[in-house]
């Protein structure tokens, strides 16, 4: 079976070896990708992979994709939707990329993207900061009276507005309905007001574990894989899964790519169940395909059972929110405008 | 409409077969009603998204210039026009069918209005709700469930009371689906529709309600309407506040119900063409929504905001309560199709939040927070509108799974119902029925007696003669018959009087009825009556229609009483 898969990939790949520039996020995540995806792909196809890093913004995509020869891009799904609408990504022929589209459910195969993994934005805290009662819910993130200290938050309206309403007791199923109203946005920013003077903003996904480790903040928002990697590296931090926001990471192909065939071969390889499972064994981002889940075993080296650390592991509790990518994509301007107005309104947030 | 004379079905199946038939019917009806309710809800949500009624859809077009404001006004107006066209061209009834029609059909053992009108009513409700009218979805869902359940009337399955039970099953499943609340669905069917409890009805409605719940909650994983976290009532004196809130909600519920009735009456008399009335209401709604978007549609976002402290200011709450009452009355009165259940929930929860804001604003009394007052208000206002205090209490319990909040709501609901029942009536449905001539306020037996005209008991086999017939011939006919008096008319058939056996002159009858006399009227008039029979005379022409005997009136009375007893005490 493996032989046939390899043969198929080889047949689909141009005879002459090529190079692909794959754009990703760096840090522990990129290290896991290199071992699980990039190196095996090169080994099987002979196509060399060069990686580039970006901050996930559309601005970076517009400015750098053509100039730096980006081919395949690792993206958050909402950004991929916006980039697709803006003509920055190549439309995909999903039938040619996968024979099992239903295996991706509940993730959606959108026009220019192919789901690859599931991650969660979670809150983590430095245990030393709270020797007594520990934070357990997302409401505790906003409660600086019970849990004093700075909060490290991504400088973006993504996720924090959702958290604000979850902390007000809004059930996950209604968060986006309420955030769609002016009243809901006002409520969310009112909640943010409660911690305005305690915020440290971060922009690099690798920052939150560092900020917690060096004691600059007592709690931080961040990605579950990054916190897991920091824990493995010996950083004393605890993750609170309550209120986690689950999002999809997708692959897209830059419209300006000069190696479309190789890019498509990469997508086929990267979204095979065994490739997905290999990544999840190295960093706890869940696979986007259902059939990959049973393949996930122990982390190489440490022997940690990785399925327990995935964002959608049932033992993490029922209070979580699945990010509505379409909504996010279509409300970027509004949320950014309101967020910047809030930032400008009395204070710099820490 | 003349009700059927109660009768026992000629071919009653064996108990085992009856039980199997009832359970199968309950499963099928429960499943069908639940799927239909889910389908209706999804169609409405889809329309809300496509037509930019749902905030979640509107916000995504926020950058698209005037698109959202134009849609806000144009969509409800266009919806109104479509609804008016549905009334004109698709519906024989020409109006929305809802819980009052279901109650009437079940209480008088009649079929529901024709399927075409029912389907048109559901379509009109879907358009009304989908295009953002300020009306409720539960009334149409109840009717849809009842309509599907009512189809068992067409089957001859040898089960007494099956048509009523089938309808109740459909209603129970629809409510269980709508609220994820099977116990509330079961109780609603008994409390509002059947109005009695019997093993025969209880078992199948339970099965239907659970089927609806399983489909909605387990198979389709529908989210609950409401989830609140509540730590419990912190202070004993708050129960007095809940009672006071109940009293105020009763007053507001009465204002709401009277306004709906009044606007509907005025609309019927207005010079505005019927085809334009819903569109005008839709346009008024849209114009208001430009400034107050919470009034559009069912308002599930506002429902949630009302439980969050500080989401609304007191002024905003007061304005929204007034606007929602007025616009709902306008939409329903001017012909949009929909119910009053959802708007009542919204008005009540907003008013409960307003009440808490006022109490909290005084700073005199610590309270347990806004959520419990909002929910008490919601149920205290809704229960008198739909006439189902027990159902509303159970809905709170099943939605919140919180005993403390249920007890609090119970206090508010009880006080609200006491006042509203005393000064308005059991429910808006019952008052609407009473205005159509069906008064259920004094009980099912009285209503049935009142609804049955005396003409169903009359005979034309009496001794009838004209005034130009020789008296001796009339006497000879009398002597050869069991009758002791003859009924004399002129040659045109107009009733002139009674000729007793052996008498020579006409005498006026001791009593006479006309075609509008009911069995109840007759029973009351018969006190102290002695004689053969009572002539029934056409009130307009004076023509003799026939004669009713005392025995036939009593027989009709006993038939109805026995029929009700059979229903109420029936076992599987």
Helix/strand layout:
The complex is a heterodimer of chains A (350) and B (572).
Chain A: H1 2-12, E1 19-24, H2 27-45, E2 48-53, H3 58-68, E3 72-76, H4 77-85, H5 94-97, E4 114-125, H6 138-141, E5 151-154, H7 160-167, H8 172-179, H9 182-193, E6 199-202, H10 207-213, E7 219-223, H11 224-232, E8 238-253, H12 260-270, H13 273-282, E9 286-287, E10 320-322, H14 325-330, H15 332-344
Parallel strand pairs in A: 1-2, 1-3, 5-6, 5-7, 8-10
Antiparallel strand pairs in A: 3-8, 4-7, 4-8, 4-9
Chain B: H1 15-50, H2 55-58, H3 67-89, H4 99-107, H5 115-130, H6 138-150, H7 162-179, H8 182-194, H9 199-219, H10 238-269, H11 277-291, H12 300-305, H13 314-333, H14 341-362, H15 370-386, H16 389-400, H17 403-423, H18 428-435, H19 444-451, E1 464-466, H20 471-479, E2 485-489, E3 495-500, E4 513-514, H21 519-525, E5 533-537, E6 544-549, H22 550-569
Parallel strand pairs in B: 1-2, 4-5
Antiparallel strand pairs in B: 2-3, 5-6
Helix pairs in contact in B: 1-5, 1-6, 1-7, 1-9, 3-5, 3-11, 4-7, 4-18, 5-6, 6-7, 7-8, 7-9, 8-9, 8-16, 10-13, 10-14, 10-15, 10-17, 11-13, 13-14, 14-15, 15-16, 15-17, 16-17, 19-22, 21-22
Structural description of this entry:
Chain B: Keywords: CBS domain, Chloride, Chloride channel, Ion channel, Ion transport, Membrane, Transmembrane, Transmembrane helix, Transport. Chain B: It is found in: Membrane. The complex is a heterodimer of chains A (350) and B (572). Helices cover 41% and strands 18% of the residues of chain A. The mean pLDDT of chain A is 90. Chain A has 15 helices and ten strands. In chain A, helix 2 runs antiparallel to helix 13 and helix 7 crosses helix 9 (182-193). The longest helix of chain A is centred in the N-terminal third of the chain and has 19 residues, at 27-45. Chain A is globular. Chain A has 350 residues and is an alpha/beta fold. Chain B has 572 residues and is mainly alpha-helical. Chain B has three domains: 15-226, Clc chloride channel; 236-436, Clc chloride channel (Orthogonal Bundle); 450-562, CBS-domain. In chain B, helix 5 runs antiparallel to helix 6 (138-150). Chain B starts with 14 loop residues before the first helix and ends with a helix. The interface between A and B is medium-sized, with 22 and 24 residues.
């Amino acid at each position: 079976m493996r032989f046939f898969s390899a043969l198929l990939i080889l047949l689909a790949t141009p005879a002459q070896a090529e190079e692909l520039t794959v754009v990703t996020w760096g840090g522990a995540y990129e290290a896991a990708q290199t071992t699980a995806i990039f190196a095996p792909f090169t080994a099987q196809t002979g196509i060399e992979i060069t990686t580039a890093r970006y901050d996930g913004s559309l601005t970076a995509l517009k400015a750098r994709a053509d100039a730096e020869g980006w081919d395949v891009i690792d993206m958050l799904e909402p950004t991929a939707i916006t980039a697709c609408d803006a003509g920055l990504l190549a439309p995909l022929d999903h039938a040619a990329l996968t024979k099992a589209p239903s295996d991706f459910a509940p993730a959606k195969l959108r026009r220019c993207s192919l789901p690859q993994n599931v991650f969660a934005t979670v809150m983590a805290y430095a245990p030393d900061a709270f020797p007594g009662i520990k934070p357990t819910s997302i409401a505790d993130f906003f409660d600086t009276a019970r849990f004093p200290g700075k909060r490290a938050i991504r400088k973006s309206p993504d996720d924090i507005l959702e958290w604000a309403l979850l902390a007000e007791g809004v059930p996950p199923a209604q968060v986006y309905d309420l955030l769609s109203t002016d009243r809901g946005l006002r409520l969310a920013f009112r909640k943010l007001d409660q911690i305005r003077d305690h915020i440290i903003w971060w922009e690099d996904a690798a920052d939150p574990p560092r900020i917690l480790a060096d004691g600059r903040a007592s709690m931080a928002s961040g990605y579950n894989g990054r916190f897991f990697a920091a824990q493995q590296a010996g950083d004393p931090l605890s993750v609170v899964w309550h209120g986690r926001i689950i999002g999809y990471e997708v692959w897209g192909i830059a419209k300006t790519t000069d190696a479309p065939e190789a890019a498509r071969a990469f997508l086929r390889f990267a979204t095979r169940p065994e490739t997905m499972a290999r990544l999840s064994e190295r960093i706890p981002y869940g696979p986007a395909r259902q059939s990959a889940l049973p393949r996930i075993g122990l982390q190489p080296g440490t022997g940690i059972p990785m399925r327990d650390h995935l964002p959608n592991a049932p033992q993490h509790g029922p209070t979580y929110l699945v990010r509505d990518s379409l909504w996010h994509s279509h409300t970027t301007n509004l949320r950014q405008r309101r967020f910047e107005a809030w930032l400008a309104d009395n204070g710099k947030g820490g | 409409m003349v009700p059927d004379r109660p009768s026992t079905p000629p071919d009653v199946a064996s108990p085992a077969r009856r039980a199997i038939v009832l359970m199968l019917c309950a499963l099928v009806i429960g499943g069908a009603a639940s799927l239909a309710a889910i389908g209706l809800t999804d169609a409405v949500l889809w329309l809300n998204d496509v037509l930019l009624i749902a905030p979640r859809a509107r916000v995504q077009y926020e950058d698209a210039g005037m698109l959202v404001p134009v849609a806000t006004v144009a969509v409800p107006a266009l919806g109104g026009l479509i609804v008016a066209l549905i009334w004109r061209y698709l519906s024989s009834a020409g109006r929305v069918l809802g819980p009052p029609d279901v109650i009437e059909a079940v209480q008088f053992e009649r079929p529901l209005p024709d399927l075409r009108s029912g389907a048109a009513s559901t379509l009109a409700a879907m358009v009304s709700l989908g295009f953002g009218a300020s009306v409720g979805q539960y009334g149409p869902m109840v009717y849809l469930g009842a309509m599907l359940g009512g189809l068992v009337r067409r089957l001859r399955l040898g089960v007494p009371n099956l048509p009523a039970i089938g309808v109740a099953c459909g209603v129970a499943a629809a409510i269980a689906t709508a609220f994820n609340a099977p116990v509330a669905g079961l109780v609603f069917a008994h409390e509002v529709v059947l109005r009695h409890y019997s093993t025969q009805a209880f078992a199948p409605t339970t099965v239907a309600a659970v089927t609806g719940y399983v489909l909605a909650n387990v198979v389709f994983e529908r989210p609950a309407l409401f989830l609140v976290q509540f730590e419990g009532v912190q202070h004993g004196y708050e129960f007095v506040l809940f009672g006071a809130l109940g009293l105020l909600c009763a007053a507001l519920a009465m204002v709401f119900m009277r306004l709906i009735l009044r606007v509907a009456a005025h609309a019927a008399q207005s010079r505005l063409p019927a085809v334009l009335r819903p569109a005008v209401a839709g346009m008024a709604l849209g114009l208001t929504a430009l400034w107050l978007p919470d009034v559009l549609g069912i308002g599930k976002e506002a429902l949630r905001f009302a439980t969050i402290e500080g989401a609304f200011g007191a002024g905003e709450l007061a304005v929204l309560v007034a606007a929602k009452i007025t616009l709902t009355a306008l939409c329903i009165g001017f012909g949009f199709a929909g119910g009053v259940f959802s708007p009542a929930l919204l008005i009540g929860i907003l008013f409960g939040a307003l009440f808490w804001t006022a109490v909290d604003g005084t700073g005199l009394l610590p309270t347990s927070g806004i959520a419990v007052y909002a929910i008490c208000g919601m149920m205290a206002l809704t229960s008198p509108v739909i006439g189902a205090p027990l159902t509303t209490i159970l809905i709170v319990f099943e939605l919140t799974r919180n005993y403390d909040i249920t007890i609090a709501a119970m206090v508010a609901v009880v006080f609200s119902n006491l006042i509203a029942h005393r000064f308005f009536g059991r429910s808006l449905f019952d008052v609407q029925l009473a205005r159509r001539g069906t008064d259920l306020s004094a009980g099912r037996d009285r209503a049935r007696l009142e609804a049955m005209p005396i003409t169903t008991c009359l005979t034309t086999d009496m001794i009838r003669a004209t005034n130009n017939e020789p008296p001796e011939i009339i006497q000879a006919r009398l002597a050869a018959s069991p009758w002791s008096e003859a009924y004399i008319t002129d040659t045109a058939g107009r009733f002139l009087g009674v000729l007793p056996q052996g008498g020579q002159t006409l005498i006026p009858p001791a009593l006479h009825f006309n075609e509008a006399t009911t069995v109840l009227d007759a029973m009351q008039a018969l006190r102290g009556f002695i004689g053969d029979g009572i002539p029934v005379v056409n009130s307009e022409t004076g023509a003799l229609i026939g004669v009713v005997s005392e025995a036939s009136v009593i027989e009709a009375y006993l038939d109805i009483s026995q029929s009700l007893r059979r229903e109420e005490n029936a076992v599987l």
